[in-house]
Amino acid sequence: MGQDTPAYILAALTAGGGITGYIRTGSIPSIAAGCTVGALYGLGAYRIQQRQSYGVELALLASVILAGSSIPRAIRTQKPLPAGLSLLALFGLWTFGNAYRLGYKVKSI
Question: Over the stretch 44-82, which tens digit does the pLDDT of each residue have?
Fold first, then answer.
């Protein structure tokens, strides 16, 4: 499994979660944040798949944004939805942080 697969999965989960939050509660911030973070993950995944630069960095940025918004809320509210988002963010931070740390390089075709 390459680095693009987890990024595509996280893109679908975050964008789908934002859309679901909007449908259930009418929350504009949910759809805006979910689709924005999902788009960052999706763009990162596409760039990784196409062997373009800054794909891992975009996916890592999406993870940092998601973690920055969900972890404090999970600690404060103790509710399952922010806790689940925090787990997704931590998975992204671990996956793409390790790829960045290990020097994931774009291979020339």
Answer: 999 999 999 999 999 999 999 999 999 999 999 999 989
Q: How far is CA 73 from CA 1, 14, 48, 67, in A?
A: 32, 16, 30, 10
Task: Report CA-CA distances (Å) from 15 to 20, 38, 54, 94.
Answer: 9, 5, 21, 20
pTM of the model: 0.91
Axis-axis angle for helices 4-25, 28-49 (nearest 10): 170
Check residue 100 and give its pLDDT: 94
Calpha distance 18→23 (Å, rounded): 9
Query: Phi and psi dihedrals of 25, rounded to 5?
Result: -120, -10
pLDDT band at 104 (very low <50, low <70, confident <90, very high): confident
pLDDT value, residue 107: 56
